[in-house]
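Researcher: Quick test of sequence recovery. Tokens follow.
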């Protein structure tokens, strides 16, 4: 799970951009990105599973998810003109997220 977590986090972080990209109505380009991620995942599984087992599978998925998220984020930045640095949360935003998570964990 620890090896898979970074890929899942990357995919989750790209979700808002993906929602915007779906509104651009370019299904062929979106499908090509997902297809490339699938092929990357399959190729890496063939290479990594024999030597690493389930860890290799998780590593392959993390690499594919991260590459897909990077491609989608790049497409978002290019199509909107929003600078990449604006997509990175500032310290105040991170503090707010941590505060909200603590509230949820403590029954708030």
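Model:
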């Amino acid at each position: 799970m620890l090896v898979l977590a970074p890929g899942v986090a990357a995919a989750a972080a790209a979700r808002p951009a993906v929602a915007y990209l779906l509104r651009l109505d370019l299904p062929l380009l979106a499908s090509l990105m997902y297809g490339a991620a699938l092929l990357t995942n399959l190729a890496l599984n063939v290479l990594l599973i024999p030597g690493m087992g389930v860890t290799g599978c998780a590593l392959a998925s993390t690499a594919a998810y991260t590459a897909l998220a990077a491609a989608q984020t790049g497409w978002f930045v290019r199509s909107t003109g929003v600078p990449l640095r604006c997509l990175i949360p500032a310290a105040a935003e991170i503090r707010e997220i941590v505060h909200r998570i603590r509230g949820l964990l403590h029954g708030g």
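DSSP finds four helices and no strands in the chain.
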